[in-house]
């Protein structure tokens, strides 16, 4: 028998639940390589890859953020893309 002196809460899911639509949209863009994170500062950087953008928008449409419509999820993707620059502001 293992002695579990330290009890840990079980992981509820393999992926974290995103609290905001914007956070979800950003992670969707990163997942589809439309946006990358600066390895030094963590800022989101636009990769300017139209195909990756399309894949992310398609994913948002097919698998919208819980509680939103495909239109709202796709709009959030576009909004994040508009707010992300193509360079890290601190690099
Ligand atoms: Zn940076």
Structure described in brief:
This protein has three helices and two strands, in the order H-E-E-H-H. It is mainly alpha-helical and about 90 residues long. A hairpin with a 6-residue loop joins strand 1 and strand 2.
Description:
By secondary structure, the protein is mostly helical. The protein has a domain at 21-83. Helices cover 42% and strands 7% of the residues. It has three helices and two strands; from the N terminus they run H-E-E-H-H. It has a two-stranded antiparallel ribbon. Helix 1 (21-31) crosses helix 2 (50-62), helix 1 crosses helix 3 and helix 2 packs antiparallel against helix 3 (70-83). Bound molecules: zinc ion (ZN). Zinc ion (ZN) binds next to loops. Residues 38, 40-41, 43, 88, 90-91 line the site of zinc ion.
Secondary-structure blueprint:
Blueprint: H1 21-31, E1 35-37, E2 44-46, H2 50-62, H3 70-83
The chain binds zinc ion.
Stretches where pLDDT falls below 50 for ≥5 residues? none
Q: Tell me the helix content.
A: 40-55%
Alpha carbon gyration radius: 17 Å
**Arrangement of strands in the largest sheet:** 1-2
% residues in beta strands:
5-15%
Mean pLDDT: 88
Small-molecule binders here are:
zinc ion
Terminal residue distance: 52 Å
Structural class: mainly alpha
* Series of secondary-structure elements, N-terminal to C-terminal: HEEHH
Number of strands: 2
């Amino acid at each position: 028998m293992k002695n579990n002196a330290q009890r840990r809460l079980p992981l509820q899911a393999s992926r974290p639940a995103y609290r905001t639509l914007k956070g979800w949209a950003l992670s969707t863009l990163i997942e589809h390589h439309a946006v990358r994170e600066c390895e030094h500062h963590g800022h989101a950087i636009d990769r300017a890859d139209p195909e990756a953008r399309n894949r992310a928008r398609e994913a948002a449409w097919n698998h919208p953020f819980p509680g939103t419509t495909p239109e709202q999820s796709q709009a959030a993707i576009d909004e994040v893309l508009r707010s992300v620059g193509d360079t890290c502001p601190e690099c």
